Amino acid sequence: VFPSLAQAQASVANEVYQELGQPSIFLFCPTEYCSSLCSPSPSQSCYLQTIGQELLPGIGVIWTGPKVVSQELSATLLEEVEAVLRRRPVIWDNLYANDYDCRRVFLGPYMGRAPGLMSRLQGLLLNPNCELQANFIPIHTLGAWFRSELGSCAPPDPAGEEVVAALGDSPGAQDGSYSPQEALEVALRDWVAEINQQALEPGG
């Protein structure tokens, strides 16, 4: 019925999206969802070019970066992906994911993401460690990174000033910078406080 897999996927996704009344959030995960799965590259992938052309503009497209688990995300890569998809991507960040290897647990801070990325994204999803308690530092430092991104792109109006003021003394909140080391230290301090609080609770 369809001349290509991409056209089939886009057609079905478009139909479902319209049948649901074009919801404000509707995400599509392409078969080629990272650079390493594209041939020969994201910008020259016939599959992604078709997805970008055929998929309705209100549908968000998921992207994981250069690889399935990407150590770094650059503005240059996101520009290339945005151009071929004709929309800003939704990053599905597998930096902490360990569902493929339960012996791997990453407890470090959120890092390897270039400053100013939020303005190039439609959204960002974090795929956490499978172990609940192992996600305190990842999620805490992701919050610090997001606050720094929000602070650096806040509009110069009273509402924007209120947002920045509400960020408090979070790492990078005031000057728009993000330090993984500083974020880690704050997260560790808060994690110890959380552990001590739980220890004082009945049955702790």
UniProtKB/TrEMBL annotation:
One of its GO terms (biological process) is glycoprotein metabolic process. It comes from Cisticola juncidis. Signal peptide: none annotated. It holds the Pfam family NAGidase. Residues 1-150 form the GH84 domain. Coiled coil: none annotated. This is OGA GlcNAcase. One of its GO terms (molecular function) is beta-N-acetylglucosaminidase activity.
